[in-house]
Amino acid sequence: MIEMLVTTEAQELLDQLNALLEQELRYQPKASGLRLIETAHDNGLRMTARLRDFEVKDLLSLTQFFGFSTETFSLAVNFLDRFLSKMKAQPKHLGCVGLSCFYLAVKATEEERNIPLATDLIRISQYRFTVSDMMRMEKIVLEKLYWRVKATTAFQFLQLYHLLIHENLPCERRKHLNFERLEAQLKACHCRIMFSKVKPSVLALSILALEIEEKKLLELKEAIECLQIHSKTNSRDLTFWKELVLKCLAEYSSNKCSKPNVQKLKWIVSGRTARQLKHSYYRISHLPTIPETGS
């Protein structure tokens, strides 16, 4: 059935997909560690889901501030969740852990000329720890991640699935499956710890399948089924996670969720960074704006 997706151009993408599917379980956070975080009481002494989610929103704000890619953000979240699911980090150390994971992801994915100085990164984030503190934390994070900084992420799957799906869409219909919109949906899901418990391939497929259903792209239904079979995702799991993604995005669009125009972070930027970015300060949103279809 997967043969319908295979063209000369698609074969290389399928080879990449197979490699990611083979590797993804190696880079999953520990399920037992994530459950401990989810069930922890918010007493200021233990890591909780609320604290983790708030930290991820701050990392998203930094990603937007510097104009870094969704790949960088997705990788930073992977590092953070893998670390937190292994270590009993205290809330007071979360900022240092999160920023260290973010900086490792930036250095792993972004062009060298775009990587900020650690001093600027700390200052912009308004933390009080030092560069030495962050460098020590980076080493601890790397040791706990077994120095695996090229992790398999949901973003990589989403990108590959999207490219493969485009092979089955006429040119005039491709604008209806906007990748920027899919990226924004993935970012919103990353801000909920529950989505760190699912395999990246399943999360990416859930987001894509839900979008295709919403946009009534009926000609892609069989292509989604092919990807589902190829990725060995059973229908029950896909339905379960699609429902959770739908609920997450619905809450994001409702008054239950703080909107970017309600809660904004004000970053105090050093003179050097301000000159580089051509602004004296920025106001940026916690959560991404999900663009309208066809934008």
From TrEMBL:
The keyword Oxidoreductase does not apply. Residues 57-143 form the Cyclin-like domain. It comes from the Eukaryota. It holds the Pfam family Cyclin_N. InterPro entries: Cyclin (IPR039361), Cyclin-like_dom (IPR013763), Cyclin-like_sf (IPR036915), Cyclin_N (IPR006671). Keywords: Cyclin. Belongs to the cyclin family. This is Cyclin-like domain-containing protein. It comes from Mauremys mutica (yellowpond turtle). The lineage of its organism: Eukaryota, Metazoa, Chordata, Craniata, Vertebrata.
